[in-house]
Amino acid sequence: MSDDLLVVDDLHRHFVRGPQTVRALDGVSLRVTRGDFVALVGASGSGKSTLLNLLAGLDTPTSGEVRFRGRALTAYSRREIARYRAARVGMIFQSFHLIPHSTALENVELALCFGPLRGAERRATARGLLERLGLGDRLDHRPADLSGGEQQRVAVARALAGDPEVLLADEPTGNLDAENAAMIANLLRDLHRDGVAVVMTTHNLDLAEEYADRKVRLEYGRIAGDAE
Predict the structure, then answer these.
(1) CATH class of the region 4-100+162-227
(2) How far apart are the first and last CA of the chain?
């Protein structure tokens, strides 16, 4: 069996804004294999987040394709793409995107609603994920009562709820201070060592150099470098 999880083939994503066409991605090809920790680096507007959204199935390409284990995401039905996002890939965002009126436990439980677990089993799984990330004493806290680092750890627990093969992290340390940024980066590295492939966008070149196995540099929607 091939080690390829995600294959990006001549991917284009263009946006029409008035009389102009913005080429957010302009012919990107990339492979993400089991065991990869890939950092997508580049300036704002280079296409990093656009690429991550396409890998997650949150957007569709203008042309080209993203394949997961050999099958193009554009061939998935709406139900299949929902299952893909629920179980195959986990997504972490810079802005956490937690439900403000729900507790940490409820935020993670919600991500488990799309799987086979029910009732007490779902709650126990969510509790276990949060305890694994050092949040056992924050289960009943709402996002406003958590620090930035704690909120991001809840977001990581939510992303892990479906036991994904790939973790997609969009500037996961961008809103955190140095101490919490290092904590999240170390957590991603631990998850990678446990067998989860990680694709992370970041502006922080030092972070990419220290934690990632591969640095893929994007410029103007194209790959300008791919190195270990």
Answers:
(1) alpha beta
(2) 24
